[in-house]
Write a structure and sequence with these properties.
With 125 residues, the chain is mainly α. 74% of the residues lie in helices and 0% in strands. Helix 6 runs antiparallel to helix 7. The longest helix has 21 residues. It starts with a helix and ends with a helix.
Amino acid sequence: MTGFLALNPTPAEANDRIAAAVAVQEPRLRAFVHIVLPLATPALAACGVIMFIISWHELLIPLILNARPDFMTLPVVIASLVGDVFVFFNLMMAICLLALAPTVILVALLQKYIVEGLAAGAVKG
C-alpha cells in the first residue's frame, strides 16, 4: 500500500485538491474521503482481497484456539477428514470446492481493482 501511494501518478494533483479543500475550509475528513480515498481504491481492493484469502484459508490458529467442534472453520474440517486408516477424498474435495467458491467470486468481482493496485504498486519510479 505504501508503494502504491508513494508512486501514485497524480500526487501533485491530489495535493493541489487537498490544499484547495483546506483553503475553502472543508473538513479534512471530507477532503480525505473525496480526494485521497478514490485514488487509493485499487490499492485498498488489492490489500483487502489478499488479506481475505489469507484469513479465509487459515488453518493453524483456529486449530489451536478452537476447542468446540461446533465452531470449526472449513480448513479445520478438511484437515479432520484425514484419518489414520482412511481418507474421505470425495467429501474432502466437495468441501474444498465450497471453501474455494467465495475466494473465486471475490477475485472475479474485484479483478479490475486488483490488477490496477498490484501493477501500480509494483512500478519502480
